[in-house]
Amino acid sequence: MREAPISAGFDRRGVLLAGAGLAAGCAATPWTPPAPVAFKIIEHQPIPMRDGVRLSARMWLPSAGVRVPAVLECIPYRKRDLYRAADDLWGPQLAAAGIAFVRLDVRGSGESEGVLTDEYSEAELEDCVEAIAWLARQDWCSGAVGMRGISWGGINTVQVAARRPPALRAIMPMCMCDRRYTDDAHYVGGTLAHTNFQWGALFKKVMAGPPDPQIHGDAWRTMWRQRLEATPPILATWMEHQREDAYWKRGSVYEAPADIAVPAYFAGGWSDTYTGAGLRLFSSLRTPAKMLIGPWGHTYPYAAAQGIDWAHEEVRWWREWLMHERTGIMEEPRLRLFLPSATASEGGPVPGRWVGEQRWPPPASLRRFYLNTGALEPQAKSGEPIVHRDRGVVGTTKPEWLDRLPIEQSHDDALSAVFDAQPFGEALEIAGEPELMLHVAADRPVAKVFVRLCDVRPDGKSWLVTWATLNLTRRESMSAPAPLKPGEVYTVRIRLRPTAYVFRAGSRLRLAISEGFWPMLWPSPEIPTLTLPTGVSTLSLPVRSGRQNEAACPITQGTGSDPAPTYRPATPDASGSIALTNNQPASPYRVEGAGVELAASSEETSEMTAGNPLSCRWRQTARSSWRSEGRDCAVEASYELTSDAASFRIRETLHATENGRDVFSRESNRRIPRDLM
């Protein structure tokens, strides 16, 4: 995580300044931030759990002279060192506004006792419930508690809220998901995803990281050894659950969103893969809910290049729901979203405007296009079936599910089945989920489809607007897949990722369809040929109607810009081999206040021979180190994945050293059957 800048509206200490505002003129009820109050910081506060384990919290407590509410964030990313910069920002901002901020290390991470063996475990969620109750009982607390977080912290926030802790009064989840199987890196569209392994290698370092001797004294080595011994071959665990079974459904709140009974404020960005899940949950809640989506990726709203004064917004939210103060926040549009007229991949500030809506999807009319031979057209035309077999390795213009932005799409378009509409005579705004009703047959029992919706400009460049993928063996159920009958035509509904976008006059809409998308997705065991009857499949675009709410929602945002991605699409060499590398060298830096130097590095390689999906190989080695006076600890995690037609082979390693001496080493080798993957 990069160090977060001080948000607008705060002085150099991070103290809220009166008069700061997220949206000038946006509030229906004028609101002035409270005068800042002094606060104290507690570096290490043990919180006892039901089984005797003590979790470690860092707390910012206002000296307000009255009992105050508390906001909890619970993540495994080491509050004392790795996440210290972010906590040092949010702690003062909230505490100065009369709201206690409590950062809790997940059980078995950072300075908390116990062991961490998986994401969002039952122990973790129960710990959060107990921590909320503990906070509410403190003599400084008013009894009202909120919960916030981004990514992991946003995901466990909604899971904990579904358990309805009595003292939990409101939540603020950012960049989160509500469905672990399909929306949290593991099985994208029901297909084994590269990000499952990228994240898994990093997660093993989180599980195996050492506690700090400055907090735990001589006991730190014993605690570290317990963590190392308990760290499982987590990638094998995830691969043993290739269907959406009870393992993935535990903690996935999408099936019962009504379990969340407190007000919720969601935040995300259009370049963040998690935003669709946030919109789905926002739309499903029966409680007061708000959402904001900006022109950024998987980051906090304040940290983005075109970020906003999120601290002002967050303080308003907590004072509204934890302190019963009328701030006007609920009198504004429930949904505020940035409507871009270009993609972030093009570099520079993303052009567009903020709009306000009351629901998702917003009011829209559907514009339907038929998939005719090479064209998207308003009327169906008969013709010979469209037969497609990927013309090489498709996917290197968007190699990652989450982080790196896609590049210009012409390379992958040329390898796919492409359907183009006529140029738009005037600008066209869409907001919602484009839907593809696809009639498709495959000549193999296992096949998938990857669809991309692109904006093709008059200069011929193609820019990715949104996308979706589906493992066709999971066409009816992610829990009970069934093989395809070769040659049989299936009708499948594919909802593309939610989007809001303005196609300029002169642009063309392009739909590109491929079977593979590598290296984001593991390839099918054989390369299928797809057949689409002509003039039967349809693409429906949600065309946004009206501008009735826009005047109510001007938002002041930063004017910075993220650079356009500079990598190039990969092509096979003369032998047909293709290889992608993504190496992150170590850049040591010192964490002031913790007395430790941190460093992290990673080397990642994806390889395959064009035309031979069984040659696919993914491997990665990730390292982290912690150096302080008299101590130099390091953890290294690696994996290698290969397959044959019937099974996957996964090798995982974990290695730890102290002062250059080996203290732990383990290797796991597993063969796991392919389950229609």
Largest sheet: 10 strands, mixed
CATH architecture of the largest domain: 3-Layer(aba) Sandwich
Mean pLDDT: 94
Q: What is the CATH homology-level superfamily of the largest domain?
A: Alpha/Beta hydrolase fold, catalytic domain
Strand order of the largest sheet: 1-2-4-3-5-6-9-10-11-12
β-strand percent reads 25-35%
CATH class of the largest domain: Alpha Beta
What is the CATH third-level topology name of the largest domain? Answer: Rossmann fold
Please tell me about this protein's structure.
- It is a single chain.
- This protein is of the alpha+beta class and 677 residues long.
- It has 3 domains: 39-190 and 244-331, Alpha/Beta hydrolase fold, catalytic domain (Rossmann fold, 3-Layer(aba) Sandwich), CATH 3.40.50.1820; 364-552, Jelly Rolls, CATH 2.60.120.260; 577-673.
- The protein has 12 helices and 32 strands.
- The strands form 6 sheets. The chain has a 10-stranded mixed sheet, with helices on both faces. Strands 13, 14, 15, 18, 21, 24 and 25 form a 7-stranded antiparallel sheet that branches.
- The longest helix is centred in the first third of the chain and has 16 residues, at 122-137.
- It starts with 38 loop residues before the first strand and ends with a strand.
